[in-house]
Amino acid sequence: MKHRLYIISGPSGVGKGTLVKLLLKEDESLALSVSCTTRKPREGEKDGVDYFFLTKEEFLKRVEEDGFLEYDEHFGNYYGTPKSFVREQMKEKSVILEIDVVGALNVRNRCGEEFSPVLILVIPPDEETLVKRLEGRASEDENALRERLARAKYELSLKDKYDYVVVNDDLGATVKRLHEIILAENAK
Ligand code: ADP
Ligand code: 5GP
Question: Please, what is the average pLDDT of the chain?
Fold first, then answer.
């Protein structure tokens, strides 16, 4: 069985982080790629676990060195997927990338031949649920919340570009659906 690259995208607050954590607990043959970002850590976030937190200067240096599989700017901060980190992990395991829609399509377009990623979009049951989850997380002010909702609409409009679209309604059922997709793709 060869190791595959799974890209999980979806609007901020849809539940990607929560789902991925549960998936990793369920299947030890999966690894998570940790992205780099220039945004400040939220409470409880750890460097090297949730993200590699870099200064803008450090980030731009890595861009120059072609150190990212893809990178982008969101809400005034840079986010990128470190190439060497993903390559190293793929020697041992299938790797999950949790990145936004544009990042996912960039990986497919720019590095599709090397990595042949499987693209999975996680969507909320409806907009009201997404608002509730974002509010529940309580890490954004009202402006940031509005910005994230506008962005969510754009992300949902690209769903036809994805290999799989999964609705995150019941948490346990959604983890199971994601795991089934991964097992089926790994077996191909
Ligand atoms: P993301 O990583 O996509 O930004 P999070 O994983 O931080 O989203 O989830 C946002 C909030 O929604 C968290 O408070 C999380 O506990 C909650 N959540 C995630 N999935 C579900 C679900 N299926 N049902 C109810 N709440 C959920
Ligand atoms: P947050 O600040 O809420 O953790 O993430 C903000 C946005 O950045 C989310 O849409 C998230 O998916 C995206 N993101 C996180 N890591 C990466 C990455 O490595 N590359 C890209 N392009 N987007 C990322």
Answer: 91
What is the pTM assigned to this prediction?
0.85
Distance from Cα 79 to the centre of ligand 2, integer Å: 6
Buried b or exposed e, range 37-56, using 16+ CB within 10 angstroms: bbeeeeeeeeeeebbbbbee
pLDDT at 21 over 80: yes
Question: Pocket around ligand 1: residues whose beta carbon is below 6 Å from it?
Answer: 10, 12-18, 133, 136-137, 168, 171, 174
Atom 10 of ligand 2, nearest CA residue: 100
CA 146/CA 100 separation, integer angstroms: 17
Q: Is the CB of 23 under 6 A from ligand 2?
A: no
Q: Is the CB–ligand 2 distance for residue 155 below 6 Å?
A: no
Nearest ligand, CA of residue 140?
A: 2
Of 135, 120, 98, give the one whose Cα is nearest residue 181.
Answer: 120
Average the pLDDT over each of 87-91, 132-136, 183-187 and give the range with the smallest value: 132-136
CB 6 within 8 A of CB 29: no
What architecture (CATH level 2) is domain 5-187? Answer: 3-Layer(aba) Sandwich (3.40)
Confidence of residue 53 (pLDDT cuts 50, 70, 90): very high
Cα 85 to Cα 95, 102, 163, 171: the distances in Å are: 10, 20, 24, 29
